[in-house]
Structure formats: C-alpha cells, structure tokens
Amino acid sequence: MIDEGVIKFNCNWINEPIGVVVPEVLKHWRDKMHELQLIGEYKEINIGYGNISIKIPEGILVSGTQTGNVYPIQNKDFALVTAYSMAENSVNCKGLLKASAESLTHAAVYDADPSIEAIIHIHNKELWLELMNQVPTSGKDVPYGTAKMASEIKRLFEETTLLEDKIMVMAGHDEGIITFGKNLEEAGAVILKYLS
Q: Where are the domains of the chain?
C-alpha cells in the first residue's frame, strides 16, 4: 500500500479564501512539474502526489492537499500556512483546501536557512532510485509529513551538503524528492538538471 496523501500532523484549518495573491510564477512551475508527470496522481488509487510552495511575508503559500490531479492549477488550489509547530506536530492554515500533507516538511526546509524561499516536492521512481544515497537522503524509517521528518531535515542540513546541493531524497517516502532554492527558478533548475 502506498503511504501517500494523508495528513499526518494536527491540521488547524480555517476554510476561507487565503487573502493573498498567488503569483503566476508559482502556478507556472507547478503546472510545468505536472506536465513532466513529477506532480500528479496515482490513478489506480486516486491519490495525488507532489507539491510546491514559496515563502511570503504572510507565511508559506503551498499547493492544497490532493491537488496533484488538478491541471491547470488555480488560485483556489493553494493554501496559506500561517503558523506551525514541530514540537506539537501541528500546522495552522487557511484556504478553500487544507495545506499539503508535506507542509511541515516544507516548514522545516524554510527554517533551515533564511535564503530558501521556494520548494518543489516531486515523485519520480527512476530518479529516486538513482539519487538514493548519492545526494543527501533521509532515513528509510522516517515518514513524510511528520515532526520526525522535520528533525531529519534539520540533521541533513547540519551533517550533509544539503544546503549546497539543494536536493534531497526521502528514502522512507517512495519516489519522493525535494528541491529548493532562493526562488522557483533555482528549485526548478535543480530538478531539470538531474532529469537531463
């Protein structure tokens, strides 16, 4: 059974419009990843995979949970994470959808270095297998979207070349890869480099 698409943190959700503008560049990169089938849906089980976010003054603007099958993505498909706590394994968000199940993971990456302002989380089996333990790789026993993953990300930033590489493999999350950068162009360029 694929462990995918389930929110594993305490989600304090306010069901209302996010109240911020969703930049065109965010929708562009999300749809580009969808076109490359790096964000999408496992059709046999109707579960979406992959997500994208940027850091803005109001919080973390992230694709909503289970939007992998949406194309083209719309403003209403994003959520705003306004607060989070690793200690309490909780995320506060607002939007017409709950924030992605990976929101706590995104928060941990943003917390690791202030220069990081964009994250893309993709799925690709071939690339995942090829990069496993060749780039910073989380422990196989660390589940996605949890406080445990957040502390694992902190460890990878401290003990590996993750900040320089801008890419990590999630060994305990089938096909899961995260890239990041100072903007979406940088995060996307890392993916495209490894794909080619």
A: 10-195
Report how far residue 18's alpha carbon sits from residue 56's, in angstroms, rounded to the nearest whole number: 12
pLDDT in tens, 136-161: 999 999 998 888 999 999 999 999 99
Are 180 and 156 in contact by the 8 Å Cβ rule? The answer is no
> Counting Cβ atoms within 10 Å, is residue 160 exposed (0-12), middle (13-18) or buried (19+)?
middle
- The answer to whether 95 and 63 have CB atoms below 8 angstroms apart is no
CATH 3.20.20.140 is right for the domain spanning 10-195: no
Backbone conformation region of residue 14, classed left if phi is above 0, alpha if psi is from -120 to 50, else beta = beta
CA distance linking residue 63 with residue 60, whole number of Å: 10
pLDDT in tens, 38-88: 999 999 888 899 999 999 999 999 999 999 999 999 999 999 999 999 999
**Full-model pTM:** 0.96
